[in-house]
Amino acid sequence: MPRPDRQKNPQFSRPKKPQGDYRTRQPAHEYVLEALPGLEDVAETELRAVPLARDIRGLRFWYPGDPERLTRLRAPVAAYRVRAWDVPRPRGLLGHQQLGELAAFLAEVVRLGGHRSFRLAAAGRESSVMQRLAEELQVALDLPFDPEEGELLIRLRPQEDGLGWEVLARITPRPLSARAWRVCNMGGGLNATIAYAVHKLAGQRDEDRIFNPMSGSGTLLVERALLGPYDAMVGVDINPEAVECARRNVSAAKREVEVARVDALHTGLPDRSFDLIVSDLPWGDAVGTHGGNAALYPAFLTEMHRLCSRQGRLVVLTHEIRLFERLLNEQSRWHARELFQVYSGGHHPKAYLLGKR
Ligand SMILES: C[S@@+](CC[C@H](N)C(=O)[O-])C[C@H]1O[C@@H](n2cnc3c(N)ncnc32)[C@H](O)[C@@H]1O
């Protein structure tokens, strides 16, 4: 998530920091990141580059710095502050002392994130204990309880060592995958954390000439544009609404990327125009049909072979796994390897990295 504008977005307004190296004087808090299943390694790599993050165990870590830095992570879907209580069951959190500590812990997260409502996520969230907890927190936090859409997502779960219960409080009102640049959404739009992972694993080179055929709402374009320099980047889609949507998102991200209404199979562009081609092909459900894809996919591979430079890379993300792997097995012009398989919104697409033989 890009750095929020504090003037426009009071969610991240905080008291002025003390002068000097304030970070070393801040107490560390424990945090946990949540990534889409399949993207945990990408999220951990990004986490390891956060200065001051320490004692990193998978996606769990201690951090004394400004939590706003964590709201700018792009591989995880959420970041939570965590605290554990030495209670055998959630009922123990209703004790006077525990409830006071829990309310103070959550109030601090609300102060940083500006959440306007809360919800609880726990096994048995309909139970009488959870209902009591919701009632108590409603008063203590002075926030409405909204069981479905509450902005402060509070997860309760047993500690791994089984000795107590831990509470995770999501530090942002919306998931990190809900990017500030996304002002236009389309059916079939890619989760932005997947687009980030595609680019990180495809390799990021300043001299890349990048092509995103079938760019839809422009998720792959914007996520790459935000990563840093490249030589050129072009997106095309056959649907004029998608082109308009991608342009709006690119502009909201304050980047310049050319997006045009062009059939990706007949671009008319010269041979070997691109060093990196990334595409989220129609999956045959929300976008495209399975029958149509049987013709589209081979034609796509042929045209991309023409447009890809000799040492170029082609990344294909698809849920049409059987069709795509059969096509790979039947051809000899590309070598391919799987980059990842991710679980998202009931789908489990795979990303493949192809190179010319
Ligand atoms: C799965 S969607 C891409 C979603 C996109 N990654 C996003 O985040 O919004 C596939 C896109 O391919 C486009 N498409 C299908 N056939 C095409 C073709 N021959 N040329 C260009 N675009 C095409 C569709 O209009 C659709 O926008």
Automatic annotation (TrEMBL):
One BP annotation, GO: tRNA methylation
Pfam families associated with the record: UPF0020 (PF01170)
Entry-linked CDD domains: AdoMet_MTases
Location of the Ribosomal RNA large subunit methyltransferase K/L-like methyltransferase domain: 179-349
Keyword Lyase carried by entry: no
Chain segments carrying region Disordered: 1-24
GO molecular function terms noted in the UniProt entry: tRNA (guanine) methyltransferase activity
Listed Gene3D superfamilies: Vaccinia Virus protein VP39
Keywords: Methyltransferase, Transferase
Protein name: RNA methylase
Taxonomic path: Bacteria, Thermotogati, Deinococcota, Deinococci, Deinococcales
